[in-house]
Amino acid sequence: MTYTGADLIAEGLAEYGVEHVFAIVSIHNMPILDAINRLGRTRIIDVRHEQAGTHAADGYARATGKMGVMIASTGPGTTNTVTGLYEARYASSPVLVITGQAETAFYGKGLSYVHEAENQLPMLATVTRRVESPRHIGQLADAFARVVADMHTGRRAPGALEIPIDLQYAESAKASFPPLAEYRPAPAPDELERAVRKIDEASRRVIIAGGGVIAADAGDALTALAEKLDAPVITTVDGRGAIPEDHPLCIGNYYGSAGIYQAIAEADLTLAIGTKFAVGVDGNGARFTPPGELVQVDVDPNMVGRTHHAHLGIIADAGAALEAFLGALAETSGNDAQFNQGVLEARDGVQSAMRARLGPDYARLMDIMREKLPRDGLWCRDSTIAAYNFGNQLFPIHAPRTSINPSSGAIGPGLPFALGAVIGTGKPGILINGDGGFMFHATELATAAQYQVPLVVCVFNDGGYGVLRWLQDTRFGRINETDLGKMDFAKMAGSMGVPGERVQDVAAFEAAIERGLGGTGPYLVDVDMECFEPMEISIMPKKKPVEA
Length: 548
What we know:
Blueprint: H1 5-15, E1 20-23, H2 30-39, E2 43-46, H3 50-64, E3 68-72, H4 76-79, H5 82-90, E4 95-101, H6 120-125, E5 130-132, H7 140-151, E6 159-164, H8 165-169, H9 189-201, E7 205-209, H10 211-215, H11 219-229, E8 233-235, E9 250-252, H12 258-263, E10 269-273, H13 284-287, E11 293-298, E12 312-315, H14 318-328, H15 337-372, E13 378-381, H16 385-391, E14 403-404, H17 414-425, E15 429-434, H18 435-438, H19 445-450, E16 455-461, H20 466-476, H21 489-495, E17 500-503, H22 506-518, E18 523-528
Helix pairs in contact: 1-2, 1-7, 3-5, 3-17, 9-14, 11-14, 15-22
């Protein structure tokens, strides 16, 4: 049988260790999907929308540490991937979109070839770091390898490969794919010496760990350094799990908390590792200047000193830097005990205050999910009121790559994120979603049913965009355009082959979570928020008066 460009792509994916790809079949990618199935080394997951598939590839990448792949059609299929690539770029996630294109004889001629998209490359370039489009079959292997290599060099990033349909069918020579080079730059010797001296001389140190620690698989080294220095560790939301959140030195994702910031104000050294200091909503992150001298370590030179002045910037892989610090700090004294006590007490106070704002019902719902989910189970969130009130901070994370959320603050990626993460790892997962965001990709329940993905989907149903309601009420004293009506998501799920139920009290919720996690496939829990004691940051829609 003739070996084609499509076969080359199938073999390349397998050689780079891709075990699953997400896809929607089209006349502009059929040869690739056929080749993947014939080779039999990569499994195709058929999603219902290209945006969801790209988000699923992102969740897959974050949970596994491997490259996530979405295979789409040219034109409308590829435009649908852009939002997913935007989120992946924001989160420094290695997601590859492979798409077709009009055959080379018609490409760029403006002849309305079906799905022709002459500006597809510049469009993809706005949300990726590298895009390639070979024009001859002899260029295909090198183009593929260049994109994949770039995605894994330095701070990880998404990439895209556009393959004209005639090249997918074209006869090709077999190719060998260069292995991914290990990119773990260590600190320069003089920078390491200066950093060690600053760390050794300080007595009130604080460590801030970001997603770069997770990407470098450096959680153990981070924990060892924290213990050696007896230094509290604050994580970013994307750095959660880098150190177990039940470790006595872990403060958690509270850098933006005024209480924590006040407690660390007297620090004489901040060691920031793998964080870009995202400024967040209204630029709040920029207002919290790291206390003391800032030693910032990042693999991307563009990030060092960008948000805050770094007294010492080190361009290095987070893992290589942590290992170098551990090796060079032979003898050093621990942190000032009084300083640590103040920081740890502030952590406990902030957590207690946040828990109190949840009210008794939602605090118990959170505890139930943590009790039932395995320690290394996947905790996935959409941008929703439950995530902002407890999912992103209070819910304890015990292992790296188990906490997945929209880094960009996007609404909607939650369900496909969770599907990709669970498919990639085989671990059970719980997703918390709002009803508004859930509707963006609710059709992916059909994907969950088709592949029997062991995921419990908790839809916190308040009939609208709860976060925006609260913001509107706070800023304008009124709400508008945020009420969506009450959907019966359990019935919706059942229509797509996913069992589910609506719950209206804590006991029913606990029983539903047990049923969901005890099964072998997906399960949906529709949480009727009108029946629970409200969270402090929660505004339910006003009930319409009953007409006489």
